[in-house]
Design goal:
Elements (H helix, E strand, L loop, with lengths): L8 E5 L4 H12 L3 E6 L2 H10 L4 E4 L5 H11 L4 E4 L14 H29 L3 E6 L12 H21 L4 E8 L5 H6 L3 H9 L9 H12 L10 E4 L7
Parallel strand pairs: 1-2, 1-4, 2-3, 4-5, 5-6, 6-7
Helix pairs in contact: 1-8, 3-4, 4-5
């Protein structure tokens, strides 16, 4: 069955690089009208050169009020992917207040703010919709030097469950995709050292890290009507990590 998002306005945050960038390209191939948000204006503009049909909006999603202003310019949205994320890593004993504030501002507050807008818009138009939040395996397992990040992704899982309960009666589905290490350009850089990668790979039954398209495919499935009875779920793209 071919997935077709023809006519669906789809908002993707963190769209300028990594998973978000590839997701935008795939959504356009599936017929979606894509609205791309990211902080890096130059990268967004380079994405638009590759995919001229998209709309781009540079925005710092950690700023609640300015994000609202951008959203009000965007208008109607049918599908949403909350992909923007930040990881500030290190031992708990070295965590600073600003590390916590920055991480939660992007990973949690921005997700809540944007989801609120889209849900209100869908209800006002009396149409169903699908929302996918990019969480992590770190939402359900502990990872060394990831205490703040784990906390933020645990919050996303809890938020998704609550929104699912509240807005399922309106036909609005909300799901998470929970990846392991994914080999984006940054992922390749951070996990290229076998001494760093080895211990993590030993915990993944498939003995490899994920590819970007494997996450993108999972997002596309959850956005589409092929998952029409799926809501409030975590889809683990982790090679079996959380099964151990």
């Amino acid at each position: 069955m071919e997935i077709n998002f023809k006519g669906k306005r789809t908002l993707v945050t963190g769209a300028s690089q990594g998973i978000g960038r590839d997701l935008v390209k795939t959504l356009v191939k599936c017929g979606a009208k894509v609205v791309a948000i990211a902080r890096n204006k130059e990268l967004l503009e380079s994405l638009k050169k590759e995919v001229p049909s998209i709309e781009i909006y540079p925005a710092d999603l950690s700023d609640w009020k300015k994000t609202e202003e951008v959203l009000n310019k965007i208008g109607d949205i049918d599908l949403l992917v909350n992909n923007a994320g930040l990881a500030v890593l290190g031992p708990l004993t070295e965590v600073r207040e600003e590390d916590v504030d920055r991480t939660f501002a992007i990973n949690v507050k921005a997700t809540i703010n944007i989801t609120k807008y889209v849900v209100k818009n869908l209800i006002a138009r009396k149409i169903p919709g699908s929302i996918v939040n990019i969480s992590s395996q770190a939402s359900v397992v502990g990872l060394n030097n990831h205490s703040v990040y784990c906390a933020s992704k645990g919050a996303i899982d809890a938020f998704t469950r609550a929104v699912t309960l509240e807005y399922g009666p309106y036909g609005i589905r909300v799901n998470n995709v929970n990846p392991t290490v994914i080999l984006t350009d940054m992922g390749k850089l951070g996990w290229s050292d076998p001494k760093v990668a080895g211990p993590m790979l030993e915990k993944i039954p498939l003995r490899r890290f994920g590819e970007v398209d494997e996450v993108v495919n999972s997002i596309i499935f959850l956005l589409s009507d092929m998952s029409s009875m799926t809501t409030g779920s975590n889809l683990y793209v982790d090679g079996g990590y959380v099964a151990i």
